[in-house]
Structures are given as structure tokens and as C-alpha cells.
Amino acid sequence: MLTPTQKQTAQSIVNLFETGVVLGDYGSVTVIPGDTGHLTFGRSQTTLGSGNLLDLLQRYCGNHGARFGHRLERWLPRFEASDVALDSELRLHNLLRATADDPIMRETQDMFFDDVYWQPAARNAANLGITSPLGVAVVYDSTVHGSWKAIRDRTIAKAGSLSALGEKNWIKAYVNTRHAWLSTHPRSDLRKTAYRMEAFQRLIDQGYWGLELPLVIRGAEISMSTLRATPPGCYDGPHPGTRSITLQTPLARGLDVRLLQLGMSDNGIAIKADGIFGQTSVILLKKYQASAGIPATGVAEPALITSLADQS
């Protein structure tokens, strides 16, 4: 059995593949042109097209402590209908980004991805006789990325069974088979992901079958310190209304900035609610202030921040 740290390391490798962040980007919202999954969200990027994003959001909204649950509930019928127009709904995208600041959403994502991806991957690995942390990580990656069973069967047909080859040789053969499949795939977005197998091949070449820390994956450090850090892009303060927000160096960041941006978004301003108050936020704040009939100073006073944040 994998230790908790080995499990988290395996998950972090896939997080890096999915969102470029060791702990995963809990507020990541992406739409890849041509991707049949359409709108994707969260730490390990679950999709509208698969129906899994609906499952995640229903779990979150069903928690009585979910800060943004009542607001997301309004969108659930469109998720149930697999409405691909959600791909371009900026207000929804901003709301999804904001949920990353809610610890309940982060914990819901952790439980969801464990249930939907990790546990099935662990069972598939065990059923095949894969016990090494690196081997389980390879299975988990394919479970998240897709087509685990198809490439498993192709590997067995081309190279042989795991019992005949031994686990390490079979995993090597699987990685080679999947790399060939990805690198020649008719979909250009999948061809670009062949790097995932290249990263696993380097770990195989270096003999990191136990996923011993520290590791460097695609230029990012996975270590005890990075595994224990606060997820990037998640804010637990400052509380709205406790300060004025203006353009400054370094740029103002935080929960109050996010909720200010989210409030402007809900009032028709095409702003990205990333929690960072930069020059674009100043310009769009002035636009909002002018539309609301207040001085267009580009400075968000506590009363304005509180008013907009209360809408969320």
C-alpha cells in the first residue's frame, strides 16, 4: 500500500500535468478548443461533457456550509442539460474561480477526485498486480487523462502480460505504448500531452519507483514543503471592507479583491475574478463606478467593496 505522502506525490504529478501546480489549481477554469469535454474546472480538471463536473458541483451545493452553494445552484439545470454555451459564460467562470477560496470547495474537490479517479485507479492497479508508487501514478494519470483500459489492452497485446514481463518492464512498455498513441493521435490537443509519458519515462530511467522526495517534474519541485503549502491562488483574507483597494506595488491580492471583481462581473463588467488588482481591474472599476453614478476614481473604498461582496 502507498503511504499518504506517496499517494499525494502521485496526485501532485498529475496535478502538474493538468494545471501546472503541485497542489492543483482549485479555481482553474479552462476551455480547450476542440475538446469534447468542453468546460473544465478544478484541481484535476473535470469536465462538463463527462457529467463529472455536474457531480462535483452537486456535491458542493449539497453542503449546507458551502459559501457559494446557493449561487451555483442556479446554474445546475444547465449543467444537467450539458449546455455547451456554459463554455463562454464569464459570470459562471468567475463564480467557479471564487469557490476556490472556500475550504469546503477544496475539501469537496479532494474527496471527489479521490472517489472518481484515485480509488478506481488504485483498484485497476491492484487488479493488474501493480504495487509500486510510480506504477500506480501511471495508472492514475491515465484514469484522469483517459483511455487507461484501451492502452492497457494494447500493451498486453504488443508486449505481453504483467506476470510475464514483471511490473517494471510492463510499466515501461505501457509508457512507451501510450507515448506512441498520444504523439500520433489525430487530435492535436492530445498530441501535445505526450510530455506526460516523457515525464514518467524520466522517473523510470532514474529509478524512482518509490516516488522518493524531492522530485522535479516539468521544472516544478515536489517536496515535503511544497506538499504542505497553501494552494496557490486561494485566498482567506483580507475580509471585504477592511481596507481600500487601489493600484499599488506589489499588486493588491486577496479575498476582498476577488469578491470585488465577482460583484463587478455580476453587474455586467467583463472582468476576470482572479483576486489580483492590476491595471485592467482599475480600468474596469472606473467603468463600473461611472455606470453606477459614483466618482470614477479607480479606487475601491471599503463601503463599495462591502456592497459588491454582499451580492456574493
Mean pLDDT: 96
Cross-sheet strand order for the largest sheet? 1-2-3
Strand segment tally: 7
Per DSSP, the total helix count is: 16
User: What would you call the shape?
Assistant: elongated
**How many angstroms does the end-to-end distance come to?**
43 Å
Question: Helix share of residues?
Answer: 40-55%
C-alpha-based Rg, rounded: 22 Å
Instruction: Give the amount of beta strand, in percent.
Output: 5-15%
Structural class: mainly alpha
Low-confidence sequence ranges = none
SSE topology string: HEEEHHHHHHHHHHHEEHEHEHH
The biggest beta sheet reads: 3 strands, antiparallel
Oligomer: single chain
Give me the secondary-structure topology:
Layout lengths: L3 H16 L9 E2 L9 E2 L4 E2 L4 H10 L7 H4 L3 H5 L9 H10 L3 H26 L4 H13 L2 H12 L2 H4 L1 H17 L4 H4 L3 H12 L8 E3 L2 E3 L1 H4 L24 E2 L1 H12 L9 E2 L1 H13 L10 H8 L3
Antiparallel strand pairs: 1-2, 2-3, 4-5, 6-7
Helix pairs in contact: 1-7, 2-6, 5-14, 6-7, 8-10, 10-12, 14-16
Describe this structure in words.
The chain has 312 residues and is mainly α. 54% of the residues lie in helices and 5% in strands. A hairpin with a 4-residue loop joins strand 2 (40-41) and strand 3 (46-47). The protein starts with a helix and ends with a helix.
